[in-house]
Amino acid sequence: MMRTVNIILIGGMMAGAGVVYFLKYEAEHATTRVAQLSRQIQQEREAIATLRAEWSLLNQPKRLQEMADRYHTYLELEPLDPNQVATLDDIPFRQVMPDGGTAGGKGPERLFAGVKPIEHTGTIKKSTDRVGKADKPEPKGVDPKPNDLLNTIIR
Amino acid sequence: MSTTMDAFPADTFRDPAQEATHAPAQAPARGKARRSATAAGRTRVKVAMLGFVAIYGAIAGKLVYLGLKGPEHSNTLGAAIVQSSPRPDLLDRNGEVLATDIKTSSLFAEPRRIIDVDEAIEALSSVLPDMREPSVRHKLKSGAGFVWLKREITPEQRFRIHRLGIPGIGFLDENKRFYPGGGMASHVVGHVNVDNQGIAGIEKYIDDEMNLNELHKLGIVHDRGLKPRKLSLDLRVQHVVRDEIAAAKERFHAVAAVGIVLDVHTGEVIAMSSLPDYDPNNPSEALEKDRMNRATAGVFEMGSVFKTFNSAMALDSGRVSLNDSFDARGGLAFGGQRISDFHGKNRILSVPEIFIYSSNIGSARMALKVGPQGQYDFFTKIGFHSKLKTELPEVAMPLWPKRLSEVSSATQSFGHGISVSPMHTAAATIPLMNGGKMIPPTFFVRTRAEADAMAVQVVKPETSEKMKYLFKLNGQIGSGTRADVAGYRVGGKTGTAEKIENGRYVANKRFNSYLAAFPIDDPQYVVLVTIDEPKAEKDVGAATAGLNAAPTVAAIVKRIAPMLNVPPRFDLAPATLASN
């Protein structure tokens, strides 16, 4: 009886020692990995900080203005005029043509030919407001953050 | 039981009970001694047990302690020595970087440990061509323990040199403050010294506020917990203001220029630029002459823009109404001194006319009606008799006559004899445009609720309404017409002050300014532009504020209004001069 107990205890002890050794090596391995990862995180942080600084350097309004000036004629860029600022309320619906809008026309007119306007008065804003009440479009995803922009640059 | 017993020699395991049965004939005295011996044995066992319990208990306790302590990070491997303390990033109100820390590496060598100097130089020069210089060879052959090879190399160079694996070559990392905008907002952001400690501007303020210097002295250097600080500046607006005042400074050959944009409802400084400025990446420039911060650390006689505060004072006192008229004929004599008008109308002028024609005589008469004490109290209320309460350390004390008198009161009514900083002037305009609430200007983001909590009512809301009318009138039919931008309704007051040289006012050296608010029917922003010593353009006769400061304001507003979400409107009735 005592003997079996002792054998069991000795076996248990040896098993315990084995497990402890195993755990110790596991823990050592994990510690190395943690140190490695935290070093890597630190490096990434520094890289992000550097890239962020570079990004803001490239994005300086002064630099953008110089570029806009340089490519002014090629890109046909002009400063915004107060007359160009409008709200949706200021945009009226397209007028219906006397012959029902099917006449040929040019460009966008032909594109919309045959499309019947929903109503003849009112503005786009009012119409979108009404649509908005019926089913509100769910906002998809999240706005791109500077980090995402940086990531695209890194890659 | 018996088999177990056989396993042990009988005499090594003495059961007291068995012994008692096997030797019943033994003397009772011996039995007694035996009994006491077994008792002693028991005590020994107990002591031994206690000893083991104590030892194992100690081990278990230590294990628990180690377990609770958590893993100790062995980061030292490969981590470099950081010599300067990290600082929080400074961001503008939209999150754009104004100042940030970047890690720079410096290359050093331990010549004693270099095996082959020629090979090392050959390898190094593949990345850094200037390593071929004879001085480098000399350094490496010197046999010294430590020499710097190059300070502040780029991360890429560092990586490439690291990959070469030259023995005896190493890097030291340092935090270095970097300002991507250069001089863009230098007078607001400030700069740091070589140890990364803030010595000017907001950099100094956050050091004082967070006791960073104390931490640095104690040797505590850690990256955690340094949250970026958000400033009230809008980088885009800041750029526009700086760009436009730089253009004006060049066009009118001025010596200096200042541009300020304040939020009327929160007191936030949206933009503040003072030219000439400096690049905080090269802090020694800051010490050069003329590069001081004129917006908050310089005081000037602001001239006619003070008629704004004079009118507000007179209207707020209740002794003067918009329909009152004052005699602006001839001049106003005080003993030997005489006040006269620049564009004299030589007739009786109403209060709005005094404002739009910028009559010195009329303004002086309005001030006299309120009295020197009333003027003194009003100027105290709007902050002209104290240092500006804001975060920036560089603020100047205004200068004003220490003795109350009618003549000094009269000259102060049109901005002479009292010197304040441009920021003082812009901040004092806030209550005149927002319904009477004085809010100290701030360089950090502030919500409207926070601003309302600290606001002090300094003028009546009606006075604010009347001031908006006067600004609007002057912007549409007065001296400020060149500041108006179609759709954005800019109203304001011009100021053309003569500068003092050797104690005398000099006619051809001027300090011009335009103090404006837009959109004037519901003001959101105060804009102040000052141009120091502008010269007249060739085909234009004079160098008055209406011809240089006002168009600069127009150019600024035209560009910043869309950024600040001010919608243009073209359907508002023009202001008319109420005839009396």
UniProtKB/TrEMBL annotation, chain A:
Residues 115-155 are annotated as: Disordered. It comes from the Bacteria. Residues 27-54 form a coiled coil. Keywords: Coiled coil, Membrane, Transmembrane, Transmembrane helix. The chain crosses the membrane at residues 6-23. Residues 126-146 have a biased composition (Basic and acidic residues). This is Cell division protein FtsL.
